[in-house]
Amino acid sequence: MHVVLLSSDLMFTSKIEGAVRTCGAKLFVTSDAQAAITSANEEGSALVMIDLTLPVLNLEDLLTSLPEGCQSLAYGPHVHEAKLAAANDAGCDLVVSRGELDRKLPTLLAKFIVTN
Question: Residue 88 and residue 50: Cα distance in Å, rounded?
């Protein structure tokens, strides 16, 4: 199982990495959308996690470039309502606030990994 994390937040990345490992999956971390797409396609990723605080992120291009069956989970600060709504409109499978992701990380990951 392979999970891609598109983020530049090193502190939160370590928490996500631990949770992904607990689920028996491997994590690829990048802050570059093209590298995320390449990794997802080469590794047949089940999930791409997208940090909405990344600048210059074209969600529609990213989502349409993912392999079939790869799901997306976007997250960002709860005060960035427009970015969260835009991620939902772009077609992300799940959009949550960063706080919700932090609180429910193991449960959310298990759901995506089990269903794929």
Answer: 12
